Amino acid sequence: MTTRSTWNAWAAGREAARLTDWLREISEPDWTATVAHPLFDALAEGRLSGEAFAAYMVQDYGFVDPFTALIGHAIGHAPTMADRVVLGQFMGMLTSDENSTFQRTFDAFGVPEQVRLAPDYLAPTRDFRGLLHDTGMHGSYAEMLAVLVVTEWLYLEWALRVTRVEGLHPLMGEWIDLHDNPAFRDFVAWLRRRLDEEAARLDEAGFARMAERFRETVARERAFHDAVHTE
Ligand SMILES: Cc1ncc(CO)c(N)n1
């Protein structure tokens, strides 16, 4: 259940209960299935072919496009300059370093121009794009933070979990590094803290919408990775 009273009951029995820990718990088994996804082990252990990695990155660029737009919406909806600065700096990384990783991956693995311009998105990619777009257009700031917490915290968790082999393709190593570095850890910690704070200000209906958004995003993450990992 995603009501505030369920959260309050959960928190009552725990010391230093955190909203985002509860949200993660009510998103099981999808949360753990995504963090433990075999795609990430194959990637880190050098068992993913260049072709499969490029295909994943093509689908993921279809995620990153509306995700970047969602950050733009969040920057616009943020209550303070302090939030805009943190989100804006993350947007800067996304549109420079991370965007470059995608472009160089497409070059290195020979993704044709036609595929870059008009990718054939899998159904779960399209669903995820729809969720990101809808949250940006119609969601509250707390809902936007909920989506960002899921997408970034999940990626941090798998990147921390995997063990990479020596001699891994540099672009695959770069993809792991983008999600396992001190700045990214700080960003995830900040997102979690801000969601904890913003959720306290929501009314009952807004709280339930935020929690539903969190759960739906975790489900979309799992479906996305199941669809791209076909080997
Ligand atoms: C599907 C997906 N979720 C999360 C991230 C991290 O931003 C990503 N690149 N792709």
UniProtKB/TrEMBL annotation:
First-tier enzyme category under EC: hydrolase
Catalytic site positions: E221 (proton donor)
A GO molecular-function descriptor: thiaminase activity
Residue ranges occupied by any Thiaminase-2/PQQC domain in the UniProt entry: 29-227
Pathway: Cofactor biosynthesis; thiamine diphosphate biosynthesis
Catalytic activity: 4-amino-5-aminomethyl-2-methylpyrimidine + H2O = 4-amino-5-hydroxymethyl-2-methylpyrimidine + NH4(+); thiamine + H2O = 5-(2-hydroxyethyl)-4-methylthiazole + 4-amino-5-hydroxymethyl-2-methylpyrimidine + H(+)
GO biological process: thiamine biosynthetic process; thiamine diphosphate biosynthetic process
EC nos: 3.5.99.2
Xref: Pfam families: TENA_THI-4 (PF03070)
Alphabetically ordered keywords of this record: Hydrolase, Thiamine biosynthesis
InterPro entries xref list: Haem_Oase-like_multi-hlx, TenA_E, Thiaminase-2/PQQC, Thiamine_Salvage_TenA
UniProt: substrate binding residues: D60, E98, E152
GO cellular component assignments: cytosol
Family: Belongs to the TenA family.
Functional note: Catalyzes an amino-pyrimidine hydrolysis reaction at the C5' of the pyrimidine moiety of thiamine compounds, a reaction that is part of a thiamine salvage pathway. Thus, catalyzes the conversion of 4-amino-5-aminomethyl-2-methylpyrimidine to 4-amino-5-hydroxymethyl-2-methylpyrimidine (HMP).
Name this protein carries in UniProt: Aminopyrimidine aminohydrolase
Species name: Halomonas heilongjiangensis
Top-level taxonomy: Bacteria, Pseudomonadati, Pseudomonadota, Gammaproteobacteria, Oceanospirillales
